[in-house]
Amino acid sequence: MIALRTDNEIERMALAGRLTAECMQEIAPMIRPGVSTAELDRAAKRFIVDRGGRPSFLGYHGYPASLCASVNEEVVHGIPGPRRLREGDIVGIDLGVILDGYQGDMARTFAVGAVSDAARALIDAAHDSFEAALAVMIPGNRLGDIGHAVQTLAESRGYGVVRELCGHGIGHDMHEDPEVPNYGQAGRGLRLRPGMVLAVEPMINAGTWRVKFLDDGWTVVTGDGSLSAHWENTVAVTADGPRILTAADS
């Protein structure tokens, strides 16, 4: 069942989204050579809890941390630990917040120090793919328009679009209906309506779109060891157009 949120609910989700975005802003300056992914996780948890929220990810189906830190070929769900970031790495930070019963979910991919032109271009493609999806999130368009927008932009630049993972509806629960693929046909699928709130999250690989799941039960990596970038926001479909809820000024 797909929930249509009232204006009041969207405002409450915007508060959760704002806290999520503020947490991302808090840890972004920490992302530099020598920092461990566990340090980022501890800082995120402390920031969220100190402001009255709860980390969405901690304990979710047994997940052991408050954020995901996915380095280089890791697509998503990298578990924070003692690994220290190195100059030239890229790292995808995915985090979620529960505030007063509503969820915010977002991801960014960061350069660690100076990175290659190829790595920077990949990060830009993930961001631009999200922006392409955002532009079509208007009432009357279709769910397939979102995936088509992501796929068209990413593949036009020679990248692979992950197909085994997707975005999702979000509200009281982190994952709600519908699924939001990052590929598809324009004009197909569910019609977008005001009140829908979706977590839209392009996952873009420098090489193949195929992925592998590691034995830790969480980490997903590219099938060929190439770099991967992830960009996500929680977005409300409104009569006035799409509204990003995971923004510091939402």
Tags for this model:
15 strands, alpha+beta, 250 residues, single chain, five-stranded antiparallel beta sheet, Creatine Amidinohydrolase
**Dominant shape:** globular
Kindly report the name of the CATH homologous superfamily.
Creatinase/methionine aminopeptidase superfamily
**What CATH architecture do you see?**
Alpha-Beta Complex
Count of domains: 1
CATH topology (fold) name: Creatine Amidinohydrolase
Q: What is the ordering of alpha helices and beta strands?
A: HHEEEEEHHEEEEEEEEEE
Major sheet, described briefly?
Answer: 5 strands, antiparallel
How are the strands of the biggest sheet laid out side by side?
A: 8-7-9-14-15
Report the portion of residues in β strands. 25-35%
Tally the helices: 4
